[in-house]
Amino acid sequence: MTRRIARSYRLRLYVAGQTPKSITAIANLKRLCERELAGRYRIEVIDLLEHPHLARRDEILAVPTLVRRLPPPIRKVIGDLSNQERVLIGLGLQPADDEA
Amino acid sequence: MTRDGRRRKSAPGRRAGTRARRGRGSLPKAPTGITGLDEITGGGLPRKRATLVCGGPGSGKTLLATQFLAHGALAHGEPGVFMSFEERPEELAENSRSIGVDLEDLRARKLLLLDYVHIDRSEIVESGGYDLDGLFIRLGHAIKTIGAKRVVLDTIEMLFSGLSDAFALRAELQRLFQWLKARGVTTIVTGERAGTGLTRHGLEEYLTDCVILLDQRVTEKQATRRLRVLKYRGSAHGNNEFPFLIDDHGLSVVPITSLGLDYPASTEHVSTGVAGLDEMLGNKGYFRGDSVLVSGTAGTGKSSLTAHFADAACRRGERCLYFAFEESMNQITRNMRSIGVDLEPWVRRGLLRIHAQRPTAHGLETHLVAMHGHIDQWQPNVVVVDPVTSLVAVGSELEVKLMLARLIDVMKSRQITVVFTSLTDTGGPPERTDVGVSSLMDVWMLLENLEARGERTRGIQIVKARGAAHSSQAREFALTDRGLALQ
What we know:
The structure holds two protein chains of two kinds. By secondary structure, chain A is α+β, with helices and mostly antiparallel strands. Chain A has a single domain, classed as 3-Layer(aba) Sandwich (Glutaredoxin). Chain A contains three helices and four strands; from the N terminus they run E-H-E-H-E-E-H. The mean pLDDT of chain A is about 90. Chain B has 16 helices and 23 strands. The longest helix of chain B is centred in the middle third of the chain and has 18 residues, at about 165-185. At the A-B interface, helix 1, helix 2, strand 4 and helix 3 of A face strand 6 and helix 7 of B.
């Protein structure tokens, strides 16, 4: 399996309040980043309840939504990120596999 | 059945709507501004509730929803949110323009907020549980920003193509519809008709207050649009399937009996162009704004009568718009010259415009749109449609009647006097084919070939003339080289 890891990852996690799903998503994301991208990532958590206009601007429907802003292109993963393999696919850290 | 029967006979138009709104226990309604729909539903869609509008692709769902928002914004000061899951803002703006709605203007005036929701499954990976709070927040913010009273979700089922957890999605949509109700907004949710169900993903299970079905059928190469109110909780509604049209004024569903009652009745007279005929009509001719039907078999002098009418209008310095569905402009002017009516000078002087068109060149709607366009643009005083029966070739009798009703509606509101000719079959009883159409007319005349005394003459009879003392006697007339002359 080949992996292409960029120099720096800028990630944004959109949540709506402190729900169990958003707390789980934040924990899952931090754990995964530490393991896979230590030292080369930045996470920004955005609570849409505080910034409702961002839902439209950043095209958010489902929460939690993880957006990879850098490197381009923009990629999105929705859900509490409990399926780590799917998150890696979503972030482009693992070649996509339809059976996954 | 009895309910329908009663509705049909009840006082039509605005009065029926008002009564329904005030009636005991009836729901408050949000008018759509769609001719006919507000009458069928007794005032509009259920206020502060969600209505499902479903139908196949191209059935007019989006246009109906657009008109609902535009009418709310412009006529009732109710701003609206249009959340589009399918068409991009540019597409929406263009399509809306075709029904006379300027979305850009509404946006600029803060009467409309358009949010295009882009969903592409290939851009989304799912990992674990999620909900649609993002959508709720987005919609809630839009409603708050503009102070929306009306909302359109078009077509929310697109979510199912972007997200894989259909079970969770359904639960979320159910929550969304409850949430909208709690917000007190009147909503249209569109759904695409599929298979045996009303919508692809069973939205009708959650949207039970009001369901409207749009349908487009193609018969003999002509498309027919139909609308039906399937369900309207707590309110009586016309159960029938109604044909509807989409033209540059939007949708119109016209329950035919409700037409033509709210116009100012003119007391000004307009000459028919034939002295003897004016005489038969109480010495005065038509009323300005009248709709006149001239029926007869081939060669009875219908076109001659309309030519006199056009000629007389131009002599008064008025503008005449002549829609010819059978003959070219040259044929008409040549034929009329043979009976001493020279129309050419009027064409040259810009008082007469002849639009000759093969009826089969277009569908009915296209004809209607084109005719509206010409009337709008040129603002004639009188109009001739010769013969209206040619349009039957491109639509069913009911549709033609609907189209005429719409056309008459427009012309009456502008006090345009219009003469339609109708070519009747030689075989059957002369009046039969016109019965449907004639009910829309103020004046109905019958021309006949008479073969009395071994020679061929012609007869004219006034079958009806609203608001005028008219002679019911049949009169003979001749087509001379100096025109149509009553004897």
